Amino acid sequence: MSELLVRAGGLYTTVQDTGRFGYYHMGMPPSGAMDVYSAVVANMLVGNPDGAGVLEGTYVGPTLEFTDDRVVAVTGADVPVTVNDEPVEPWTAIRVGPGDVLGFAMIRAGCRVYVAVSGGIDVPVYLGSRSTYTLTGIGGHQGRKLVDDETLPLGSGDGSARPGAVVPEELRPELAGPAELRTVIGLCSYRLTEDALASFLGTDWKVTKDADRVGYRLRGGKLDFTDREQPFGAGSDPANVVDLGYPVGSIQVPGGDEPIVLLNDAVTGGGYATIGTVISVDRDRIAQTKTGDVVRFTSVDLDTALAARRDRRERIERVRREIAR
Amino acid sequence: MTTIKAQMPGVFYRRPAPEKPVYVDDGEEISQGQTIALIEVMKTFNEVKADESGTVAEFLVEDGDEVDVGQDIVRLGEV
Amino acid sequence: MTEKIQLPPARYEYGGDEFVFVELDQAMSLEANFAGMAVTNALREEAIEGVVDICPSNASYMVQVDPDRLDPRELVEELRRLESTVGTLPDDYVLKTRVVDVPVLFNDPWTHETLMRFRDRHQDPEATDLEYAARINGFDSVQGVIDAMTSAPWIVTMLGFVPGLPFCYQLVPRDRQIQVPKYVRPRTDTPERTFGFGGAFAVVYPVRGAGGYQMFGMAPAPVFDLSQSLPDFADDISFPNANDVLRYRAIDMAEFESTRSEVESGTFRYRIREVEFEPASLLADPDAVNRELLEVLYR
């Protein structure tokens, strides 16, 4: 039985893959890696399928000890990485052996690190995914974040990892702020006044301390709703609508002053007016912003959103070719 | 200058709870691993531990201030 | 007879590149919910490649799409086509669904204990949640509001907020809908299986947790079972589906306890009957259709 020893769990480290789909209609969000690009590339570096289980660390990464020969790669946030306290390169496939310890120093930029190990983090598949959804306590490793001194099961690699493979600088994500989040405005944006919508797009929003996998709460302005007689069943608050579905990445403004961007572990629906949706590719970007960082919203149309998605796929395929060289 | 840095961003607290005394006072000696403050982030309160022993020369951050990763929070003086 | 509600033209919106959101009306009505149900049922049967999930909600619905396999614009074209056919609810449109008996112990000791702890967050700290609901809806007694909630069945209009939570809207005209605001400030605690009420929606809380709906009682049977140990949960962790017709039936403590022991021994099964009805008929004569639905259920 091959396993990975978790010496220290870090601040909030969970097992994730590319997400759990097909359960949104019953109220279960997809979970999955917040920064999909970094998670997929980490898997590629170690020769795993794109959707294998990886570890997602937040702010303070985990400390991991290997018990057999593996290839490991770290992607995502900009953070000094060490093996046995010696610096090693991120975005690189690194050979490790029994007793080797992978560790992290303090992050310099970004928020989330991804650790892929050849063979993948082989926790049981639950409802089609290895992703952790901590709110209900399902999936991943016992449905929760990692704690100190425990073990994780590893799968067996197929030997296709190429130690030394590197992702070129230009194919690593831009982490310097402020983050521009391309957003398709719409849904219930008619609830905001014209001035409020302009102000939403013109404001430098600051990420609050409550930003997590559920959603990012932001601060920096005040947005007014248009006056109306509330429709039947909508509730009395001007921010309320008849309960409806929330797209992943959608933005709501409960009190008019703190927009919330709903992310991978969010509620799937509720009674707050949604005013737009951050495009799927830029969820990778918001995932790498941290408390105190500045984000801005730019209005884009569906064409731009789809083009951005094609670009990301092309970048992923370029990485695949670079690694295979 | 030796300092203790914030390992994560968030809101900085010097006390375990509003009505409780501060973890450590200026001028107090602290030892490695001792809890000296809290940082609230992602809806949890996380203990800030001294990464080395020394004397607290001064706190560089006020109770309730926002801190960033890597920000100096305590300056340590000679033991 | 109440006037039939005319729906405005549906609004099609892109929720980024992965979701299409369709608002049928800004106000809640059976008409809006039935229209959404007709379109989402038809879409489900088409099994279009690239449709990841279909999420009916109260007066709207949402479709999750994989844009690498299906252009969201093509999906919207198809949804518009479905709207113009089944979405208008032609008189002969038949809904196939199931009708389910859901026992509830009203005024139970557990939600009573919880609601007493949170009186400072309630509109009327001197009354219980049920007393408050009875009063503001013009009933003489708590029994009056319980009778109103249990006499006509409900339809599951949406699942969500937390996994497995059914939003239920009663199959009666708007002027007979019971309405109760949510708590002034949300509670930090709600017992598992609480029968709750907020706006015009009845819910059963799948798990213990925070909540803002009024607490009226407790269901002995679960709506959500992660362990999938009960037979009704063999295929799915969540029991209710959108479109299910639920009849909330008031029970006494003796039945509550016997149902609990069936649940605990793993033998409990909901009383479920397959049923067909015409939404147009229900809108025209709700009492007659509701009588038929209950007849099928208890036959």
Reconstruct the topology from this structure.
The complex is a heterotrimer of chains A (325), B (79) and C (299).
Chain A lengths: L2 E6 L5 E3 L19 H10 L8 E5 L4 E4 L3 E9 L2 E3 L2 E3 L5 E3 L4 E4 L4 E9 L32 E4 L25 E7 L8 H9 L2 E3 L7 E5 L20 E6 L4 E3 L7 E3 L6 E4 L1 E5 L1 H8 L6 E6 L2 H23 L1
Parallel strand pairs in A: 12-20
Antiparallel strand pairs in A: 1-4, 1-11, 2-3, 3-10, 4-9, 5-8, 5-10, 6-7, 6-9, 12-19, 13-14, 13-20, 14-17, 15-18, 16-17, 16-19
Helix pairs in contact in A: 1-4
Chain B lengths: L1 E4 L4 E4 L15 E2 L4 E7 L2 E6 L4 E6 L6 E2 L4 E6 L2
Antiparallel strand pairs in B: 1-8, 2-4, 2-7, 3-6, 4-5, 6-8
Chain C lengths: L10 E5 L3 E5 L6 H17 L4 E6 L3 E6 L6 H14 L9 E12 L2 H9 L11 H8 L5 H10 L2 E6 L6 E5 L23 E5 L2 E4 L9 E5 L26 E6 L2 H13 L5 E7 L1 H6 L1 H13 L1
Compact description:
The complex is a heterotrimer of chains A (325), B (79) and C (299). By secondary structure, chain B is mainly β.
What can you see in these coordinates?
The complex is a heterotrimer of chains A (about 325), B (about 80) and C (about 300). Chain A has four helices and 20 strands. Chain A is an alpha+beta fold and about 325 residues long. In chain A, helix 1 packs parallel to helix 4. The two termini of chain A are about 30 Å apart. Chain B has a four-stranded antiparallel sheet with strand order 1-8-6-3, with no helix packed on it. Chain C is an alpha+beta fold and about 300 residues long. Chain C folds into two domains: about 10-90, 2-Layer Sandwich (Gyrase A, domain 2), CATH 3.30.1360; about 95-300, Cyclophilin, CATH 2.40.100.10. Helix content of chain C is about 30%, strand content about 25%. In chain C, strands 5, 6, 7, 8, 9, 10, 11 and 12 form an eight-stranded mixed sheet that branches. In chain C, strands 1-2-4-3 form a four-stranded antiparallel sheet, covered by helices on one side. The chains are: A alpha+beta (about 325), B mainly beta (about 80), C alpha+beta (about 300). Chains in contact: A-B, A-C. Chains A and C meet through strand 15, strand 18, strand 19 and helix 4 of A and strand 1, strand 2, strand 3 and strand 4 of C.
CATH architecture of the largest domain in chain C: Beta Barrel
The level of helicity of chain A is 10-25%
Instruction: Classify the secondary structure makeup of chain C into a structural class.
Output: alpha+beta
The CATH homology group name of the largest domain in chain C: Cyclophilin-like
Instruction: Quote the distance from N terminus to C terminus of chain C.
Output: 29 Å
First CA to last CA of chain A: what distance? 32 Å
Return the average pLDDT of chain C rounded to an integer: 95
Content of β-strand of chain A: 25-35%
